[in-house]
Specification:
Layout (H helix, E strand, L loop, with lengths): L1 E2 L2 E2 L1 E6 L5 E7 L2 E9 L5 E7 L2 E2 L2
Antiparallel strand pairs: 1-2, 3-4, 4-5, 5-6, 6-7
């Protein structure tokens, strides 16, 4: 979803390096529950706040 031209709510984002984040956003920053898969296939699940993993 978009709000004021920014990601807000649930979304999937594919990074140029091959990584992927599936989860919640607030003001285009990862915020809430989400899963990041690194380019090498490592998976990080948890909570995010202001674009940083907190759990």
């Amino acid at each position: 979803e978009f709000k004021d031209d920014k990601f807000h709510g649930k979304a999937t984002y594919n990074y140029a390096d091959g990584g992927e984040y599936v989860g919640e956003y607030k003001n285009t920053r990862r915020h809430g529950k989400g899963t990041y898969t690194s380019p090498s296939g490592e998976i990080y699940k948890g909570k995010w706040k202001d674009d940083k993993q907190v759990e």
